[in-house]
Amino acid sequence: MSQEIYVTRPVLPPLEEYVEYLKEIWQTHNLTNLGKFTKDFVIELKEFMDVDYCLTLSNGHMALEMLLQAMDLSGEVITTPFTFASTTHAIVRNGLTPVFCDIRESDCTIDVDKIESLITDKTTAIVPVHVYGMPCDIDRIEEIAKKHNLKVIYDAAHAFGEKVNGVNIAKAGDASMFSFHATKAFNTIEGGCAVTKDFEVMRRVYQLHNFGIMDEENVEFVGANAKMNEFEAIMGLCNLSHFEENRQKRKILFDTYRKRLSQVKGIKLLQYDEDAVELNYTYCPIIVDEEEYGMDRNALYQLLGIQGIHARKYFYPITNEFACFKDAGYKGDVPVAHRISRQVITLPLYTDLELSQVERICSIIERKN
Ligand code: T4K
Question: Are 230 and 247 found together in one domain?
Fold first, then answer.
């Protein structure tokens, strides 16, 4: 019986490094509420991403929810349904109406050619998703947003540490949120961060994430508790120092998948500009064309499953098809997202995955074993 392989497995730093930090926590008893390590971590993140303002939060979802709240938006927000539940939930939980734009077949990001036709006098923002870490067309989105006076808040949950033409992806748009969940390329156990160029937006997120408290006697906004704690912050400090070495390990696995699977008839890979984009290699989605491959996505998913390979159908179903949204009457014609969600499989990819395991998974997909 071979070892079970899951879609991901959290990367952990050398235990001694984490324990060194723990010793200090045991001395100070400072566990949370914007402690020393949280502050140190924010400083390192800011430098790493080369952004003006950054704040760590309890998770990526709260970072997105609070960024949207801090921007004081109203009306309609253009977004894609080919994403994790969080993106649409953050919009709806802010009292905003999602308007669903279709995705590009080539990389599953928002189809920029379809954005303008969805803009109405109620539109206030665009929330594009760098899904699987594939960068959206940042320049075109900025052009459209400027022309129509819209805010752009990226769901960059999957894109931490990525660069486009040498520029960190965190600098795109008015703001971005990143997820540092255990399943991501870079984790703080649970956690995330919000980044923005706008001081006022960051000030508001800062207040919102600690109950809207201004000082001991003044509460100005209806906030919540979305603070990162010190145990998460030290995990971040440890993992950040290994980010690049871990990224390089995943690159070898990602390149191996792509080299072998690009030869398989009926298996399509996402396309991106390899000269311009530095990915973080967290996800390896493949699109299964039933007719050409001779088997549909669900059959391949099962074939992998019985061999102990637990791939995932990220992102199926698309969010506009969720029980909680399907009768909501939200606008959006998304045939490409609908189709791809029925054809996609996300293969195991994580730092400690062995090359031999990737080779084995490729052999199963090639149906050679
Ligand atoms: N926007 C987008 C586009 C997102 O994808 C996400 C999160 C967010 C926003 C919100 O960010 P956060 O608020 O989560 O920071 C996982 C993650 O929980 C979620 O963070 C992520 N996206 C989503 C794509 O994947 P599940 O429910 O699929 O995870 P789960 O528990 O099934 O884990 C997957 C596999 O990972 C397991 O089969 C085994 C392995 N695993 C998982 C955990 C948690 C481990 O080996 N150890 C672990 O501790 O959602």
Answer: no
Nearest alpha-carbon partner for 163 in 8, 42, 283, 50: 50
> How does pLDDT run across 287-331, given as a tens digit for each residue?
999 999 999 999 999 999 999 999 999 999 999 999 999 899 999
Which of 181, 207, 241 corresponds to the end of one domain? Answer: 241
Question: What domain range is 314 assigned to?
Answer: 243-366
Return the ∠ at Cα 201 (arms to 196 and 204), rounded to 5°: 130
Same domain, 69 and 176: yes
Per-residue CA distances from 232 to 41, 55, 62, 271, 354 (Å): 10, 13, 15, 34, 27
Average pLDDT of the residues in 6-32: 98
* pLDDT the model gives residue 213: 93
User: pLDDT at residue 174 above 80?
Assistant: yes
Residue 224 has pLDDT above 70, yes or no: yes
Atom of ligand 1 nearest to the CA of 9: 46
Asked if 58 and 226 count as a contact pair (C-beta separation under 8 A), the reply is: yes
Residues with CB under 6 Å of ligand 1 are 6-10, 59-61, 83-84, 86-87, 129, 155, 157-158, 179, 181-183, 192, 310, 314
Give me the chain's average pLDDT, please: 97
From the alpha carbon of 179, which atom of ligand 1 is closest? Answer: 15
Q: Do residues 203 and 197 make contact, with C-beta atoms less than 8 angstroms apart?
A: no
* pTM, full prediction: 0.97
- Please choose, from the candidates 162, 150, 103, 102, the residue with its C-alpha nearest in 3D space to the C-alpha of residue 123: 150
